[in-house]
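Researcher: Go.
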Amino acid sequence: MKEFFKYIALLGIFFAVVFGIIDFKNIVIAFNEPVDINADYPEDYNDVKAVKTELDIILERFATEETVTESNGAITDRRYDYYYVVPVYTKSEENAYYVGVKVAGDDKKAYEKVCDATWAYLAGETDTLKPIKFEGGFVKMDEECYEHFENWFEENEWFEDKDDMEKYVLPLVLVSVNLEATKKSTFVLAGVIAVCTLIMVLCCRKGKEPEVEKYKRVTELNGKRY
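Model: Structure:
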């Protein structure tokens, strides 16, 4: 029976650690204090992890990512994620910095509406924007994504000076994370690891062996004890 419980405990620890590794980036984001980038302007964005704000200005989509799932050589699922350009500001700079935001396919229409409202506002056609709530944090772009990001600014001739582009176009992308749910799931994983570790310790402990009563056999023969 002990071996069975040890196996179950070891399995529990294994899966908890695997899920923790897979969700590590989101866990780091969730356990940082969220910043409202429209109100709490940071000095820079290198140390900003969690973000809880409204995105009211979104310029345009700069990349589309397709994820294909295959089984036995056949495509079973396709998922699309979209990347948009977002201006952000700091305390020390009057000019905007630019980051990306990663948007799941289901949320594309909502973000396109923000884009349309942004350009109508910049063209003077309206004086209202259509902000969208955002909760998540920053992660670093991979090289391919950042290349598409830079290409968007080059194609639109956004910067006259390439040095300015390298300074203000940051290799950061906002990703959606449910901060509270991620915290709770992390505590559950930590609890699973703690309980399973305790089970392993208890199963590995050897019980105290019962003391054997020591005695001597005495034989009496012809009045003599042997």
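Model: The chain has a mean pLDDT of 87.
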